[in-house]
Specification:
The protein has 141 residues and is mainly α. Helix content is 60%, strand content 7%. The chain contains nine helices and two strands; from the N terminus they run αααααββαααα. It has a two-stranded antiparallel sheet. Helix 8 packs across helix 9.
């Protein structure tokens, strides 16, 4: 390995800095988690998450994710007063990172709760699981 990979000062634009600028707080990642793994798509559903996000923080994170092209929002066809939030292709591309975070936390955090069948499938075939989950999200199921 050359020193270029060890010496971050040689990197013109740090990818970690870029990523943290978009999703560098717990609330942003929890909104992405809820969209990606918990089937949530409405403002009220995000508010009902067990972590207890405040309305001002939630509104700010949804706007930030939309501005950065991670999610989009559209009026609900059944109830025009509500918006539906969905991951964009850019947001869906975060799937491998989110799955890696789940795997890592399940290994090292005794408080982490991941369904055994999910973690087994994740460790057996992470790419296959990511592809299946992405296809389900793209299909709206």
């Amino acid at each position: 390995m050359t020193n270029d990979f060890k010496n971050i000062e040689n990197w013109q634009g740090c990818p970690v800095r870029f990523g943290m600028g978009i999703f560098g707080d717990k609330w942003t990642l929890l909104v992405i988690r809820d969209l990606m793994f918990k089937g949530k798509s409405y403002y009220g559903q995000f508010q009902d998450s067990e972590e207890g996000i405040s309305t001002n923080i939630l509104a700010d994170r949804l706007q930030k994710l939309e501005r950065n092209g991670i999610i989009d929002k559209a009026r609900d066809a059944e109830n025009g007063a509500r918006y539906i939030y969905r991951l964009t292709p850019k947001g869906l591309d975060m799937m491998p990172m989110m799955l890696a975070m789940i795997d890592w936390a399940e290994r090292y955090d005794g408080q982490t709760e991941v369904p055994p069948a999910f973690i087994k499938e994740l460790r057996r075939d992470p790419a296959g699981l990511a592809a299946r989950l992405r296809a389900e999200l793209e299909a709206g199921t």
